[in-house]
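As a next step, the fold was encoded as tokens, giving this record:
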Amino acid sequence: MLTSTTTASSALTVPALALAAIPVIASATAALIAARSARSVKRSEAEAQRIRDLENRISERKYEIYQPIIQALGDVFDLEKAEEMKKGGTNDLTDMLRKFATWITIYGSDEAVRAYHNFMQGAFNEAPTLVTMRLYADLMLAARRDIGADTTVTPAQLFGMRLTDLYIEGDIHKAMTLPFLELCKRESWSPPWIERSGVKKVSTSAIQQSQSPEATE
């Protein structure tokens, strides 16, 4: 009888021990999961910080690229400084434009590259003054967005800081507010990236085409 009682007691002890071990196993598992989760969070935070650092470096680099060209082009639209540039020659500006063209192709957004392309094509093809002013404004807005500004500024507002008669002189204000190809039509000038052979009348289909991202490619 003694042997039988001992055997029954042992049989009851094994399940009891197994049940007692469940909380310990669960606790160890939870600790393991928590440790892995913490490591994963740290890795994610490190990656996010790396991306932020990279974005900051790119943003700083973009500012370094844009700053001199924006300053130089701004001087072109300042009468006094423009006269000084005429006397001193335009070699410095030409070199600056070439360097900017090199780096914007690497660091610039698609919009900024297109805007600079259009601006330079206007310069190469003797765009009328009002068209040049509009191309300059479009380039400045593209630069603002590229550097990181969530901008709602308009071309008219950019020139409103420079021109006292913007809202009095109707032609300039229209140049800043009309759809670009309508402005070109008013000025009897065809953008070479739309019309490749001489000065032609800008058609409605060309206007629609220019509004697509592929228009300047």
